[in-house]
Amino acid sequence: MRQTLLLCITLVTAGALYAQNFSEGKMDSLFTILKQKDKYMGSIALSENGKIIYTNAVGFADIEAVKKADTQTRYRIGSVSKLFTATLVMKAVEEKKISLQQTLDAYFPKIKNSDKITIHQLLNHRSGIHNFTDDDEYFEYYTQQQTKYQILTIIEKGNSDFEPDTKAAYSNSNYVLLGYILEKVYQAEYSVILNEKITKPLNLTNTFVGGKINPNKNEAFSYDFKETWQKEPETDLSIPAGAGALVSTPIDLVIFIESLFNGKIISQKSLEIMKTIKDGYGSGMFELPNTGKTNYGHDGAIDRFNSLVTYLPADKLAIAIISNGGVYKNENILLCAVNSYYDKPFELPTFENLMVSIKILEQYTGEYSSEQLPIKITVDIDENQLTAQATGQKAFHLEASSETVFKFEKAGIVLEFDAQKNQMILKQAGKEFKLNKQ
User: Fold this and answer.
1) What 3-state DSSP class applies to 380?
2) What is the Cα–Cα distance from 210 to 283, expressed in whole angstroms?
3) Which InterPro entries does this chain map to (predicted)?
4) N or C: which end of the chain has fewer CB within 10 A?
5) CA–CA gap between residue 413 and residue 149 (Å, rounded)
6) Sign of the CA dihedral with 177 first, then 180, 181, and 182 last
7) Parent domain of 120
8) What pLDDT does residue 292 have?
9) 226 and 326 inside one domain
């Protein structure tokens, strides 16, 4: 449910071709490298106009049991769950169970500003309700089952970060509350509502509210790479609820988002409300980077699971990617998928770490800043390897791909140094920033 990135920037490029130009070879080559270098575990699906045009899976669902992942392996999808919850809310609006202008006090009057916060503001992150997963205390209980009363109490104590509708700020609290509201208006558990309104009609047999991970049902564990893959503790899914409790597969996700855009779940009028983006957020969706065209979707992270699903209306193209462990980012795989579809070049990673002399590395150490960025980056040396540390974040080691170019693949970061000019260029998500050494 949390993602730590140095930057999150939308890439804008151009291009439009057809699926017959889709290069499976590029995608196969990328997944072969990721498998050989042991840099990624996960799965992908691409669908055009309702037909699957590519699927693949790499890595393990359960390393200890040596159980390999396949395209039917089920993964936790984190905040991609919000796209489902928002769709269910719009369905409830169509069924006149609820109104987008209904205020929160009708359901949870103890929450600060509940008499001002509307359902619509919960959907598009304009409520001001504090995001409870940002608190340090969250990591004291996140693996333990919590009752709805306990989570509500935590959200109530978090109060508000700003007055409703004055700005937008991402908050898992919004969607936990929306899940609870759905249960109130339908007088049923969220899992039942999901099954009745979405998964059963669409035959999404691999999408459901998760519980404790069960490898016997082809459910994947998540892993962090620390010299070797280390199994990550499991968030108890009683906590994220409508904000992030779902399990799915990339194939199910592309079917879902195509059905959503083709009017098989809600009306086009309701979809337009979801697609309306203000201050970066729609209602349960936003634009993802690395597509190069107008797209609508959502990403997610929970434990070491990372997921994304997006739909490009112009070409009726849906892409979904879920990983349960990776040094290489899903955003890079998305870029490869899009470039493969539009027959654009894509540079495959090599993961080769060159040895650069300390004398050269010492030229790059120091603090860098730019008027374009609100952060500073400190470059240092640790065990004969460059490290970088952004303001307020932990230091990370950089791998050299040349004597002047260094990468942190886990976040898709590339740093290029010019010692003579005392400058460093930061590249991430298709954007470049020039920083000067202080």
Assistant:
1) strand
2) 23
3) AmpC-like (IPR050491), Beta-lactam-related (IPR001466), Beta-lactam/transpept-like (IPR012338)
4) C
5) 41
6) positive
7) 19-341
8) 86
9) yes
